[in-house]
Amino acid sequence: MCPDQWSDPEAVRAAAAVLGPRARIDAPLGAQTTSRVGGPAAVAFEANSPEDLQCVREAGQVSGLAIMVIGRGSNLLVADRGFEGIALFLGEAFGLIEIDETDATVTAGAAVALPVLARQCASAGIGGLEWAVGVPGSVGGAVRMNAGGHGSDIASCLLDAEIADLTGPHVPPAAARRQVDSLALGYRCSGLHDSDVVLRARLQGQPAAPRIALDRIGEIVRWRRENQPGGQNAGSVFMNPPSDSAGAQIDRAGLRGLRIGSAEVSRVHANFIVSDPGGTAADVVALMDEIGRRVVEQSGVVLHPEVRMVGFEEPPTPA
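-> structure tokens emitted (319 positions)
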């Protein structure tokens, strides 16, 4: 693939030169998200060690390109023109789960899928994390945005996390163990910066009979199948306003089934936008703007995007 499509091809070449043969230029990115729309990343790289993280840091410094950590792409909308930066993926070295049954704690790598975490914990007799089966993201992404669902979130069970700062003085980047209180976790947000890479998280569960925990997981999975759409979508599009839900606001505006181009407000859950195969991020953004405009007209409530917007010159703003 050729870097010449990017506005600064020399920066792309410089980053790739530092990262070596494992760097991927013009790497599919939008296609790896759950919405399946959007363009490529200028450079992509999978890290499996602190030394790999050091290479990524050097590549960013030499090239001046932005670095973005990619989890499982479940809350990500990539612009059709792509992301002109370095997409950092965490490999198998960050996909381990260690369960301590004596104190009902679990240490999970940032690349662990939340549904996998929930099921393994339940099978081992650790409860309190069943909600995670309904969140199709990674542990690292969950810490970064305080992901949650079904009455709970990461903030309610996180003890601490190992986080490496790609702009820090250590070579290779050292992982600092940070307590949950230092992360400024809020509703679908945290105090982490783009240069902070979550490597592992330690979570507090509670003893539970495996059968009961697995039954609860089964209930959540059934609820999701009945109440949330399948297909190509990025999960909940808007954050819930105070004392209400974004889906209810969109419903009251009569917007279920509203379509712009290849994007449609889900008929199953109004806070989801489903894209057609071969659809575009531009259609999703146009539909988001229209939803925001009509909800303001109908109720005066401003909806703020929950989905992370990547590669857009001007991300959508609340109406």
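The helical segments are 9-19, 50-63, 114-123, 139-145, 210-227, 246-252, 281-299.
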